[in-house]
Design goal:
The chain has about 80 residues and is mainly α. The protein has three helices and two strands, in the order αβαβα. The chain has a two-stranded antiparallel ribbon. Helix 1 packs antiparallel against helix 3. The two termini are about 20 Å apart.
């Protein structure tokens, strides 16, 4: 099992060497940057819950279902082919 969603790990998953790779919020920097820009421009953040939080859903990939599109869309870092 992996938890970083880099392309190498997703290729290992696709090859069947791993069972699962879960994303531990590697894309949060962009989300947070966008929020800061909205606030700095005087805007308000939409989607806050009653505790003024936004819950981010993390992506996960199963070896039986991962696709090439998943790797290209969500994989981080250099694309290294397993084998």
């Amino acid at each position: 099992m992996g938890f970083d969603c880099n392309k190498w790990a997703l290729r290992e998953l696709q090859a069947g060497n791993w069972n699962y790779d879960g994303q531990c919020s590697p894309f949060q920097a962009k989300v947070i940057s966008d929020m800061i820009q909205v606030l700095q421009a005087g805007g308000t953040i939409e989607g806050l819950n009653e505790n003024k939080q936004i819950i981010s859903v993390e992506k996960g990939f199963d070896a039986r279902e991962i696709t090439e599109e998943d790797i290209l869309t969500y994989g981080l870092g250099e694309d290294v082919t397993v084998g």
